[in-house]
Design a protein that fits this description.
Blueprint lengths: L2 E5 L2 E4 L4 E8 L8 E6 L6 E6 L5 E3 L7 E6 L4 E6 L8 E7 L2 E2 L3 E6 L1
Parallel strand pairs: 2-11
Antiparallel strand pairs: 1-3, 3-8, 4-5, 4-9, 5-6, 7-8, 9-10, 9-11
């Protein structure tokens, strides 16, 4: 049974930082690209960043230069380091691998 479990969300002031983690189990982690998505209230879910199985990162324009995605294949975990957070970064952040999704973790950035 494949499981993706996110952690690390919370409430932070604008300009602050958070580090999200997504731990995978039940699947060969190293053979899959991993992605982070977010959904703000009343908005569609959007792709924030993804990392290929070779470790190459890609970012949405709105987070480029502020967010860093990385993976630790030995720990079956993908990370999202978020710096210089803005109120518009608020939302539920979910990790995704193939057709599998985590339950999401709430990130709230206050102004």
């Amino acid at each position: 049974q494949v499981q993706l479990v996110e952690s690390g969300g919370g409430l932070v002031q604008a300009g602050g930082s958070l580090r999200l983690s997504c731990a995978a189990s039940g699947i060969i982690f190293g053979e899959n690209a991993m992605a982070w998505h977010r959904q703000a209230p009343g908005k569609q879910r959007e792709l924030v960043a993804f990392v290929t199985r070779d470790g190459n990162p890609n970012y949405a324009g709105s987070v480029k230069g502020r967010f860093t995605i990385s993976r630790d294949n030995a720990k079956n975990t993908v990370f999202l380091q978020m710096n210089s957070l803005k109120p518009e970064d608020t939302g539920v952040y979910s990790c995704q691998m193939n057709t599998y999704w985590g339950q999401g973790t709430q990130v709230t950035v206050s102004s």
